[in-house]
Specification:
- The chain has 562 residues and is of the alpha+beta class.
- It folds into 3 domains: 258 residues, 3-Layer(aba) Sandwich (Rossmann fold); 80 residues, no CATH class; 190 residues, Galactose-binding domain-like (Jelly Rolls).
- The strands form 4 sheets. Strands 12, 13, 14, 15, 16, 17, 18, 19, 20, 21 and 22 form an 11-stranded mixed β-sheet that branches.
- Helix 2 packs across helix 3.
- It starts with 16 loop residues before the first strand and ends in a 6-residue tail after the last strand.
Length: 562
């Protein structure tokens, strides 16, 4: 951090707080949207922050009792931010229910065009109120943060800056289908925790009834649904979990996901943007922060940090409010907080637990280094001379909590501290004994005593391996995900897998380990569990000779890190 004592220069707590509950805002199509308005207790005109989601405004009250994210108690949606913190420092805070959720009227449309348009209308309503000085921003993490991108892309005149904190940007690749694998575990629990009282699946308005019937019938015959009563029930009773029904009917990327993907709107976001994410958010928000930093052409900052829990901030969310205040004091109050004088990127380097400023991403001094798969489970800096293979047979019907079969490759112990910071790619050749399979790759830092830390992950459905030739780079392969190919059992195919970004200092004596599996397990992650290949499948990884299988790692030269 800067040596400047900016915390003494930003707005200080000097106001009490009053609350106006159940205020109704009329959108342009006549739908009434409910919000609560939190104001400083003195008359005046203040900059205003909007928190906007479908989680329910009534639940967003910050208390002294904060807890880890828990699917059991459903506290994941407590993400609007601490009203008292910002109001006491001279901001108004509006927490609004999306149409069709909470106390708002209308039909819920899951971040669709109408919800985005409503955000524009709420911002402009705020700016016109007697308590607002016309300077508006937005507040909140995850769902709230994704909406910040999409409202900003609508360009409401009075929205001056945003802070997407933990915000995905690609609804297909970063949320619903990781590498083509349905993110089933998350959608199992998520729908039960939202403030939506019934919803018709979005597919009912997009697709003819006969096409829905055809797709449902085809899915019912699939091996994945045949072995899963849960998925069968979702298809048979579409209103039970309407969004999961929609996702299953839309297995490929396209317009349905594009209209809910902020990366498609980056060219329309013209206001200052402060991006925040954590390294352990590889399954949802991590990639989005880097994608937004690359894609948004406006004043911007990026902070990549970590939280004590791998599942993210404690709830209710109050993390980094001091930095968000510093940001909004600069852009909404015109205070010189020194924020924009610092380098644009700040990274936590895991393993050293130190923060460092950077000027670009990927880092210009990166040494892209191949670590080759080699015999006896080795990861080697030199390609093996002869051909070899590593085999595992995936069994989908494992007892709950048991780790699936895997093959692992490990480097030699690092002779000195070695930093890996940047995107990672996994290139490999393989054969299968089935016409499709699912691949999951995990990178770990293993200490000399055997203790291990998961660093990042990647996923890929074999039949969706086709790359996007325009958007893929050597360090970030990107699949098209617009269809699937027929794979011949026994034939060798090449794959290029994106592995989520990482920053880790491997201390001398530590090893880098790559685990390759066909499915994941709640024993390793209780939420991000995917619909994987439902058939027992033999996976054969090939390396050496004609098979160039390797990790592409972003090594930072020694002497360039703390």
């Amino acid at each position: 951090m800067s040596e400047r004592d900016w915390r003494s220069e930003v707005s200080q707590p000097e106001y009490g707080m009053t609350v106006q509950r159940g205020v109704m805002i009329t959108s342009r199509d006549g739908t009434r949207l409910a919000c609560d308005v939190y104001l400083p207790d003195r008359p005046g005109r203040y900059p205003a922050l909007l928190s906007y989601s479908h989680y329910g405004k009534d639940l967003q009250r910050v208390t002294d009792q904060r807890a880890p994210l828990s699917p059991l108690i459903g506290n994941g949606g407590l993400e609007a931010g601490d009203s008292e913190y910002f109001v006491s420092r001279g901001y108004a805070h509006v927490i609004a229910d999306a149409r069709g959720s909470g106390d708002s009227e209308g039909e819920y449309c899951y971040q669709g065009p109408k919800e985005q348009q409503d955000g524009y209308d709420i911002i402009e309503w705020m700016a016109a109120q007697a308590w607002c000085d016309g300077q508006c921003g937005m507040l909140g993490m995850s769902y709230f943060a994704v909406m910040q991108y999409m409202v900003a892309a609508r360009q409401p005149p009075h929205l001056k800056a945003i802070v997407p904190y933990e915000a995905l940007t690609d609804r297909y690749r970063q949320s619903v289908y990781h590498g083509g694998l349905l993110n089933e575990g998350f959608w199992h629990q998520w729908w039960g925790h939202v403030s939506v009282d019934g919803m018709q699946p979005l597919s009912f308005e997009r697709l003819p009834a006969e096409e829905i019937k055809r797709r449902v019938a085809a899915l019912m015959d699939s091996p994945e649904v045949q072995r899963s009563p849960y998925l069968h029930i979702q298809l048979k009773y579409p209103r039970k979990n309407p969004l999961l029904f929609d996702w299953m009917l839309e297995p490929f990327d396209g317009p349905f996901y594009w209209e809910r993907s902020p990366y498609r709107m980056f060219d329309k976001i013209k206001i200052p943007t402060f991006l925040v994410t954590r390294w352990t958010s590889w399954a949802v928000h991590l990639a989005g922060a880097f994608e937004a930093y690359e894609g948004i052409d406006a004043p911007k900052k990026l902070l990549v940090m970590e939280t004590p829990s791998r599942l993210g901030p404690l709830r209710p969310w109050t993390d980094h409010h001091d930095l968000i205040l510093r940001w909004y004091d600069h852009w909404l109050k015109g205070k010189d907080t020194g924020f924009m004088d610092e380098p644009p990127i700040e990274l936590l380097i895991k393993g050293s637990d130190a923060y460092r400023f950077e000027k670009e991403w990927p880092l210009a001094r990166t040494q892209w280094t191949q670590f080759f798969l080699a015999p006896e489970g080795a990861l080697s800096a030199t390609a093996p001379a002869g051909a070899g293979q590593a085999v595992f047979r995936n069994e989908p019907n494992l007892p709950p909590g048991q780790l699936p079969p895997a093959v692992s490759f490990q480097s030699s112990p690092f002779g000195s501290d070695t930093e890996v910071t940047g995107p990672v790619a996994f290139y490999f050749s393989a054969t299968l004994d089935q016409p499709d399979a699912t691949w999951i790759a995990t990178l770990r830092d293993v200490a000399p005593d055997g203790t291990s830390r998961v660093l990042t992950k990647g996923w890929l459905r074999a039949c969706q391996r086709a790359l996007d030739p325009e958007l893929s780079t050597h360090y970030r392969p990107r699949q098209l995900h617009t269809g699937q190919e027929t794979l011949l059992p026994g034939q060798s195919y090449t794959y290029a897998m994106e592995i989520r970004e990482v920053s880790n200092l491997f201390r001398a004596g530590h090893r880098l380990v790559l685990d390759v599996r066909g499915q994941d397990s709640t024993a390793e992650d209780p939420i991000w569990v995917h619909t994987c290949n439902a058939l027992p499948t033999e996976h054969t990884l090939q390396f050496g000779a004609a098979f160039e299988s390797y990790l592409l790692l972003p090594i930072i030269p020694k002497g360039d890190f703390a």
